[in-house]
Structures are given as C-alpha cells and as structure tokens.
Design goal:
The chain has 516 residues and is α/β, with parallel strands linked by helices. The chain folds into 3 domains: 186 residues, 3-Layer(aba) Sandwich (Rossmann fold); 189 residues, Rossmann fold (3-Layer(aba) Sandwich); 96 residues, GMP Synthetase, Chain A, domain 3. The protein is built from 14 helices and 18 strands. Strand 11, helix 7 and strand 12 form a beta-alpha-beta unit. Helix 5 packs across helix 6, helix 6 crosses helix 11 and helix 8 packs antiparallel against helix 9. The longest helix is centred in the last third of the chain and has 21 residues.
C-alpha cells in the first residue's frame, strides 16, 4: 500500500476491541488507515509518509508495571496525534499529567459539552452523546494541554496541545453509540491531517490491478471460489487484471448453503465466462467432521481438509503459479491481531500465509486491506450483480459453525432447509438488504412439542439477525413480529425434525455474530 502513503493515517494498537472501528471510520472519510503495533519506531512512521497518528484504546491501565506504550519520538515528527481513551491517558502520563483510577468503571453513554472552539469538534453539536468505557481517567492535564470538551463526570473528556498538535478524547468516537463520532474522526483525518480524500473504490481498483499485474507477470492464478462476497469480488478484480489466466476452483465441502453449487456455476461460468472447476468433496468433509463438536477444531479440520482437496484440484492446472484468496482486513485482524496487545478472536481458514504444501510461488490477496463495505463498493464498481455484491456474509467453514455440536448429514440438511426459508422470507419482506446478516442456527437440544394432536420431541433452531456496518460490532434487529411469525411457522411446518424456533437478541459485543 505504499502508493497511498500520502493519505495514510497509522493507528497504534494498544489492544482495544474497537481499534478496527477507528480504522474503519477513517476509511469512511476517504483516507487510508492501517493498524500497526503500538511500538512501531518513529523512523518507520516517517518512512511510511504518514499524515497522522492515532493511539487506540486498550484494556490495560497506565499504572500497570508492563503498561504498553509507544516510541516517544513520534511526538517529535510534527504529525497530528489523536489519543483515544487509553491513548489519551498514556499521552497525559508521558507529558507529566495525572491519571487516576476512576471511582467506578464508567461504561455507557455520557453527554459531551464543548468548552472551546476546536477543529476536532467542528460541525459537532455543542452537546452530544458519546460512549465512555474506562477504569482510569485524566484528573489533571499535562502542561500545555487545554480542555476542549467535558462530560458531567469527566472534565478532561477532550483535550488538545496547540503547539504540539496533539489531541485526546476519553470517550470512543469510533463506536455507533457516539452519535457524532464519525464527524470527529472525519475532522481529524481531513481537516487536521489534511488528507485529500483519495481513498475511493475506483482509485483502489486502478492501483490493485496494476499491483496484481506487476506481481504475477505473465503467470496464471488459481483462486478458491466460495460464492461469498469476498471471493466473488476478488475473482472479478483478478479477472479484470489478468483475464483467462485466472482459474477458479469451487470446493463443495458439504456444509454450503442450499443449492450453492448450481447457482455459482450459473453466475460465474455462464454469465461472467470465467474458468471455473467444481469439486464435490462433501463426503470426505462430513466424514472427518463426524464426532467433532469444538468450534475451533471444526475450523481447523475444515481448513486442513480444504487444503488437501484444493491441492489435488490445483494439480490439474499446472500452469497456475500463484494462489489467490479473498482475505479481508477483518479476517487478518480477528485471526492474528495486528500488535502484540491484540487478542485472537477466532481463526480464519484463509489467513496465515501461503501453505507450502500447495507448491505455489506467491499468495495474491487483492482485498487484504479492505473492510467488507469497501469490498462491496469495489464489487459494484466492477459491475458485479447487485444480489451478489450485497449478499450477506457467510462463514468460511460454512454451516459447520452454525450447527452447534456434531456436524452430520442429517443436521446439515435440516439447517439448509431452515436457512433457505429464512432467506426467502427476508428477501420477500424487503428486510434482507436492510440488515447485515440473517440466518438460522441449529441447536444441540430437543424440546417437546405438539403437532396434529401428537407429542413431538424434535430439534430447535435459533434465528440470528443483526445490523452492522463492518462486522466488528453488531446490534440485533427488532424484526416485525409478523415476519418472525411467518419464518417460524414455515420452518416448523416445512422442515420435518424441527419443532421450535427462538430468536437471538444478543449484540456484539458481548456475543459474536456467529455462534461458533
């Protein structure tokens, strides 16, 4: 991404669950952002040509003996710096201010009142709702820092140092609960850092095509096509770059959505005229999943089996020297974190480097630094069908992580039918494109029911419908009750073996979107 250096804002990661959202909000301001380890040397920041720096929040306390920090020399680069929550506290302590334990952990909404006119708060209402989440707080700012906004409980809620061009906020502007947080981060990126707003879909496509052509030369590329948005957009972008030298392989692992293989062949083979090979490996996947119930074990097993099956398919295309994947930025962040303070949330089968046993020269990942909505924007720019670009996310391990407990052919069939009904009713009602994801989860329980005056003892499914902008946080959706009723009624009446439907009303965090 060196070609975007002049538009680059670096986010130093102290391990916050919200760090990814900071990056996303900066991208929304059409400025490129990237998450890096908090201890990145100042010389590297200078070499990358960053326009600004953000210090993220984090779970640590500045009072901890091993509290994470950053290279103090970055404050001498002359770049604008914004500290968020822990970032503000670390800055305050570093420059000689006082940070103390809060009387009680402050977690929730607060009203922010402006005290001074400041470019960080330009266009923000004089009083606005923000989201607090901290156990420490600044009680005395460092010399040279001024208060620009306060909440009732936190006087030093937003500060700046005019000479050093350092800003800090105790709240989290990146989360949806901070009503004007987007404006605040937009102000930092565009007004304060001077980013011109050149981070757009068309600009990215032009640059990515050039990078792909430079990387692969006259070689051929093999792509594992899943039918999801990420791999589909990756296929379209690579096809635009190298044409028929792209070879796609679809592996049916037995835990795909209903009728997935047929629809995929029709779209990519018949309409987009891509080279695509279909491999039915459902039997081997289901055999190996037998008896496995632990979520991470399922993911690892599916990943290793996919590599084995894909390797065999790849052998029939010996001219393909490069392997392409639809890896996106959230995949990278959730699987391995960015800095040493970030936790691994869950593993992704397409993250972790180039499998040596496949025999490819290099890995091609044209979407690796993109969030989901950026991927969609690029798909639209490339001319992919609307229903494909706006297809809801689907996990790499497929229905295996939506079947709690053992994955059997019977359980897969039950969930495919239930999930098909959810999809049909969401589309018919117009709700499908209004939400981030909507799907069914097969639960490892049976319950008593009554059907046709007879007692039943059958399995249950949970409906999961969430709203999100990037998958990093999500809120459950309050669907109309008549729609929920239709979905429930159809599942129970049409899917033999299910007699109960429940609705999941858990947000992320504390839950995840998928159940496994």
């Amino acid at each position: 991404m060196s070609h975007l250096a002049s538009e680059q804002i670096l986010i130093l990661d102290f391990g916050s669950q919200y760090t990814q959202l900071i990056a996303r909000r900066i991208r929304e301001a059409n400025a490129y952002s990237e998450i890096v380890d908090s201890m990145i040397p100042a010389d590297e920041i200078r070499a990358r040509g960053a326009a600004g720096i953000i210090l993220s929040g984090g779970p640590a306390s500045v009072h901890d003996p091993d509290a994470p920090g950053c290279d103090p020399a970055l404050f001498d680069l002359g770049l604008p710096v914004l500290g968020v929550c822990y970032g503000l506290q670390w800055i305050t302590r570093h420059f000689g201010g006082t940070v103390q334990r809060s009387g009680s952990r402050e977690y929730g909404p607060a009203l922010l009142s402006q005290r001074l006119d400041n470019p960080l708060l330009q266009g923000v209402a004089p009083v606005t709702k923000v989201w607090m989440s901290h156990a420490d707080e600044v009680v005395q700012g460092a010399p040279g820092f001024e208060i620009i906004a306060s909440s009732e409980a936190v006087p030093w809620a937003a500060v700046w140092h005019p000479e050093r061009r350092i800003w800090g906020v105790q709240f989290h502007p990146e989360v949806e609960h901070s009503e004007e947080g987007r404006q605040i981060l937009h102000n930092f990126a565009r007004r304060i850092c001077g980013c011109a707003g050149s981070w757009t879909a068309s600009h990215y496509i032009e640059r990515a095509i050039g990078e792909v052509r430079s990387q692969v030369g006259d070689g051929a590329v093999l792509l594992g096509l899943s039918g999801g948005v990420d791999s589909s957009v990756a296929a379209a972008l690579l096809h635009r770059a190298i044409g028929d030298r792209l070879h796609c392989v679809f592996v049916d692992n037995g835990v795909m959505r209903h009728d997935e293989a047929r629809e995929l062949r029709q779209v990519f083979g018949q309409h987009l005229h891509m080279n695509i090979r279909m491999v039915d490996a459902s039997e081997i996947f289901l055999q190996r999943l037998a008896g496995v119930t632990e979520p991470e074990q399922k993911r690892r097993l599916i990943g290793t089996t996919f590599v084995e099956v894909f390797r065999e398919a790849a052998a029939s295309i010996p001219q393909a020297r490069f392997l392409a994947q639809g890896t996106t930025y959230p995949d990278v962040i959730e699987s391995s974190g960015i800095g040493k303070h970030a936790d691994t949330i869950k593993s992704h089968h397409n993250v972790g480097g180039l499998p040596a046993e496949l025999g490819f020269e290099q890995l091609v990942e044209p979407l690796r630094m993109l969030f989901k909505d950026e991927v969609r924007a690029i798909g639209e720019e490339l001319g992919l069908p609307h229903e494909m670009v706006w297809r809801q996310p689907f996990p790499g391990p497929g229905l295996a992580v939506r079947i709690l407990g053992e994955v059997t052919r019977e359980n897969v069939a039950l969930l495919q039918q239930a999930d098909r009904i959810v999809l049909e009713e969401m589309i018919r009602s117009g709700w499908y494109y209004k939400v981030w994801q909507s799907f069914a989860v097969l639960l490892p329980v049976k319950s008593v029911g009554v059907m046709g005056d007879c007692r039943t003892y059958e399995k249950a499914v949970a409906l999961r419908v969430v709203q999100s902008s990037d998958g990093m946080t999500a809120d459950w959706v309050d669907l109309p009750h008549d729609l929920l009723g239709r979905i429930s009624s159809r599942i129970i009446n049409e899917v033999r073996g299910l007699n109960r439907v429940v609705y999941d009303i858990t947000s992320k965090p504390p839950g995840t979107i998928e159940w496994e």
